Amino acid sequence: MARVLSLVLLLATLASILPPSASQAATRCEYPRHAGHGYKHPVGVRKVVVDAGGAGDFTSIQQAVDSVPVNNTVRVIMQINAGTYSNKLDHERARREKVLVPASKPYITFHGAGRDVTVVEWHDRASDRGPDGQPLRTYNTASVTVLSNFFTAKNISFKPRSTVQEQTK
Ligand SMILES: *[C@@H]1O[C@H](CO)[C@@H](O)[C@H](O)[C@H]1NC(C)=O
Ligand SMILES: *[C@@H]1O[C@H](CO)[C@@H](O)[C@H](O)[C@H]1NC(C)=O
Prior knowledge:
Blueprint: H1 2-17, H2 20-23, E1 45-50, H3 61-66, E2 75-80, E3 83-85, H4 91-97, E4 99-101, E5 108-112, E6 118-122, E7 144-146, E8 152-154, E9 157-160, H5 161-168
Parallel strand pairs: 1-2, 2-5, 3-6, 4-7, 5-8, 6-9
Bound molecules: 2-acetamido-2-deoxy-beta-D-glucopyranose (NAG) (2 copies).
One 2-acetamido-2-deoxy-beta-D-glucopyranose binds near residues 114, 154 and 155.
Protein backbone atom coordinates (compact mmCIF):
# COMPACT_ATOMS: atom_id res chain seq x y z
CA MET A 1 0.00 0.00 0.00
CA ALA A 2 2.81 2.34 0.87
CA ARG A 3 4.39 1.56 -2.47
CA VAL A 4 1.20 2.37 -4.29
CA LEU A 5 1.16 5.66 -2.45
CA SER A 6 4.72 6.39 -3.46
CA LEU A 7 3.78 5.66 -7.05
CA VAL A 8 0.89 8.07 -6.78
CA LEU A 9 3.28 10.66 -5.40
CA LEU A 10 5.68 9.96 -8.24
CA LEU A 11 2.95 10.39 -10.81
CA ALA A 12 1.67 13.47 -9.06
CA THR A 13 5.17 14.88 -9.19
CA LEU A 14 5.46 14.08 -12.87
CA ALA A 15 2.06 15.58 -13.51
CA SER A 16 3.00 18.75 -11.67
CA ILE A 17 6.08 19.25 -13.77
CA LEU A 18 4.32 18.28 -16.97
CA PRO A 19 1.48 20.61 -17.68
CA PRO A 20 0.03 19.25 -20.94
CA SER A 21 0.49 22.52 -22.75
CA ALA A 22 4.13 22.77 -21.74
CA SER A 23 4.88 19.18 -22.67
CA GLN A 24 3.66 19.76 -26.21
CA ALA A 25 6.33 22.36 -26.75
CA ALA A 26 9.39 20.70 -25.31
CA THR A 27 11.40 21.15 -28.46
CA ARG A 28 10.79 24.85 -28.33
CA CYS A 29 11.14 27.22 -25.43
CA GLU A 30 8.51 26.01 -23.02
CA TYR A 31 9.44 28.38 -20.24
CA PRO A 32 8.47 32.00 -20.07
CA ARG A 33 11.36 34.38 -20.33
CA HIS A 34 10.80 35.58 -16.79
CA ALA A 35 10.22 32.24 -15.13
CA GLY A 36 12.35 33.48 -12.27
CA HIS A 37 14.34 31.61 -9.67
CA GLY A 38 17.44 31.31 -11.74
CA TYR A 39 16.00 29.77 -14.86
CA LYS A 40 18.57 29.99 -17.60
CA HIS A 41 17.59 29.15 -21.09
CA PRO A 42 19.47 26.11 -22.40
CA VAL A 43 22.08 27.09 -24.95
CA GLY A 44 21.06 24.59 -27.61
CA VAL A 45 19.52 21.23 -28.25
CA ARG A 46 21.13 17.82 -28.44
CA LYS A 47 19.19 14.75 -29.42
CA VAL A 48 20.03 11.20 -28.45
CA VAL A 49 18.16 8.05 -29.33
CA VAL A 50 17.40 5.32 -26.83
CA ASP A 51 16.33 2.04 -28.37
CA ALA A 52 15.88 -1.10 -26.32
CA GLY A 53 16.68 -3.17 -29.41
CA GLY A 54 20.05 -1.52 -30.01
CA ALA A 55 19.11 0.69 -32.98
CA GLY A 56 19.89 3.93 -31.15
CA ASP A 57 22.75 5.56 -29.28
CA PHE A 58 21.86 3.78 -26.05
CA THR A 59 19.87 0.73 -25.04
CA SER A 60 18.82 2.02 -21.63
CA ILE A 61 17.49 5.32 -20.44
CA GLN A 62 19.98 5.45 -17.61
CA GLN A 63 22.90 5.11 -20.03
CA ALA A 64 21.57 8.12 -21.90
CA VAL A 65 21.20 10.10 -18.68
CA ASP A 66 24.71 9.10 -17.66
CA SER A 67 26.02 10.51 -20.94
CA VAL A 68 24.81 14.00 -20.06
CA PRO A 69 27.63 16.05 -18.52
CA VAL A 70 27.42 17.41 -15.01
CA ASN A 71 26.24 21.04 -15.09
CA ASN A 72 24.66 20.42 -18.46
CA THR A 73 23.55 23.61 -20.23
CA VAL A 74 21.95 22.08 -23.34
CA ARG A 75 18.40 20.83 -23.73
CA VAL A 76 18.95 17.09 -24.22
CA ILE A 77 16.02 15.44 -25.95
CA MET A 78 16.06 11.72 -25.43
CA GLN A 79 14.02 10.06 -28.13
CA ILE A 80 12.98 6.84 -26.45
CA ASN A 81 11.80 4.45 -29.10
CA ALA A 82 8.93 2.04 -28.69
CA GLY A 83 9.81 -0.68 -26.25
CA THR A 84 9.53 -1.78 -22.70
CA TYR A 85 12.39 -0.52 -20.61
CA SER A 86 12.24 -3.00 -17.83
CA ASN A 87 14.35 -4.96 -15.49
CA LYS A 88 13.40 -8.52 -15.98
CA LEU A 89 16.81 -10.16 -16.01
CA ASP A 90 17.78 -10.22 -12.38
CA HIS A 91 17.67 -8.16 -9.26
CA GLU A 92 21.09 -6.61 -9.76
CA ARG A 93 20.14 -5.40 -13.20
CA ALA A 94 16.74 -4.40 -11.88
CA ARG A 95 18.24 -1.85 -9.57
CA ARG A 96 20.57 -0.53 -12.20
CA GLU A 97 17.77 -0.13 -14.70
CA LYS A 98 15.92 2.25 -12.47
CA VAL A 99 16.23 5.74 -13.76
CA LEU A 100 17.82 8.49 -11.72
CA VAL A 101 18.21 11.95 -13.15
CA PRO A 102 20.65 13.72 -10.82
CA ALA A 103 20.23 17.32 -9.75
CA SER A 104 23.43 18.22 -11.61
CA LYS A 105 21.82 17.39 -14.98
CA PRO A 106 19.11 19.88 -15.84
CA TYR A 107 17.25 20.29 -19.16
CA ILE A 108 16.58 16.63 -19.91
CA THR A 109 13.51 15.63 -21.91
CA PHE A 110 12.20 12.09 -22.21
CA HIS A 111 10.29 11.84 -25.46
CA GLY A 112 8.66 8.47 -25.97
CA ALA A 113 7.03 7.13 -29.11
CA GLY A 114 3.60 7.01 -27.46
CA ARG A 115 2.22 6.30 -24.02
CA ASP A 116 1.12 2.82 -25.03
CA VAL A 117 4.35 1.80 -26.73
CA THR A 118 7.17 3.40 -24.74
CA VAL A 119 6.88 2.02 -21.26
CA VAL A 120 9.23 2.10 -18.32
CA GLU A 121 8.24 -0.89 -16.29
CA TRP A 122 9.82 -2.21 -13.17
CA HIS A 123 9.45 -5.26 -11.12
CA ASP A 124 10.24 -5.32 -7.51
CA ARG A 125 8.51 -5.71 -4.26
CA ALA A 126 9.32 -4.37 -0.87
CA SER A 127 10.21 -7.95 0.04
CA ASP A 128 12.89 -8.24 -2.66
CA ARG A 129 16.40 -8.49 -1.29
CA GLY A 130 18.92 -5.72 -1.66
CA PRO A 131 22.67 -6.22 -2.15
CA ASP A 132 23.13 -6.60 1.60
CA GLY A 133 20.57 -9.40 1.71
CA GLN A 134 18.09 -7.28 3.59
CA PRO A 135 14.60 -6.73 2.19
CA LEU A 136 14.38 -3.60 0.07
CA ARG A 137 12.31 -0.95 1.70
CA THR A 138 9.38 0.48 -0.11
CA TYR A 139 11.17 3.78 -0.57
CA ASN A 140 13.81 2.04 -2.66
CA THR A 141 11.32 0.85 -5.24
CA ALA A 142 10.43 3.96 -7.22
CA SER A 143 11.50 3.47 -10.82
CA VAL A 144 12.09 6.98 -11.98
CA THR A 145 13.55 9.63 -9.74
CA VAL A 146 14.03 13.10 -11.09
CA LEU A 147 16.09 15.46 -8.97
CA SER A 148 16.99 17.92 -11.70
CA ASN A 149 15.37 21.13 -12.81
CA PHE A 150 13.65 21.75 -16.13
CA PHE A 151 12.92 18.09 -16.78
CA THR A 152 10.06 17.23 -19.11
CA ALA A 153 8.61 13.99 -20.37
CA LYS A 154 5.97 13.20 -22.92
CA ASN A 155 4.47 10.22 -24.68
CA ILE A 156 5.95 7.79 -22.21
CA SER A 157 4.42 5.85 -19.35
CA PHE A 158 5.85 4.54 -16.13
CA LYS A 159 4.34 1.55 -14.41
CA PRO A 160 5.14 -1.01 -11.75
CA ARG A 161 4.53 -4.54 -12.92
CA SER A 162 4.27 -6.11 -9.50
CA THR A 163 1.53 -3.74 -8.35
CA VAL A 164 -0.64 -4.80 -11.25
CA GLN A 165 -0.02 -8.44 -10.39
CA GLU A 166 -0.83 -7.87 -6.76
CA GLN A 167 -4.02 -6.08 -7.61
CA THR A 168 -5.25 -8.87 -9.83
CA LYS A 169 -4.61 -11.64 -7.30
C1 LIG B 1 29.08 22.14 -11.35
O1 LIG B 1 28.59 23.35 -10.78
C2 LIG B 1 28.83 23.44 -9.39
C3 LIG B 1 28.11 24.68 -8.89
O2 LIG B 1 28.46 25.78 -9.67
C4 LIG B 1 30.33 23.45 -9.13
O3 LIG B 1 30.57 23.54 -7.75
C5 LIG B 1 30.94 22.18 -9.69
O4 LIG B 1 32.35 22.22 -9.54
C6 LIG B 1 30.59 22.01 -11.14
N1 LIG B 1 31.07 20.69 -11.59
C7 LIG B 1 31.62 20.49 -12.78
C8 LIG B 1 32.07 19.11 -13.06
O5 LIG B 1 31.72 21.39 -13.61
C1 LIG C 1 2.65 10.85 -29.15
O1 LIG C 1 2.31 9.54 -29.52
C2 LIG C 1 1.27 9.45 -30.46
C3 LIG C 1 0.99 7.99 -30.71
O2 LIG C 1 0.57 7.39 -29.50
C4 LIG C 1 1.69 10.15 -31.74
O3 LIG C 1 0.62 10.11 -32.66
C5 LIG C 1 2.03 11.58 -31.44
O4 LIG C 1 2.54 12.19 -32.60
C6 LIG C 1 3.11 11.63 -30.36
N1 LIG C 1 3.35 13.02 -30.01
C7 LIG C 1 4.57 13.47 -29.81
C8 LIG C 1 4.68 14.90 -29.45
O5 LIG C 1 5.55 12.75 -29.90
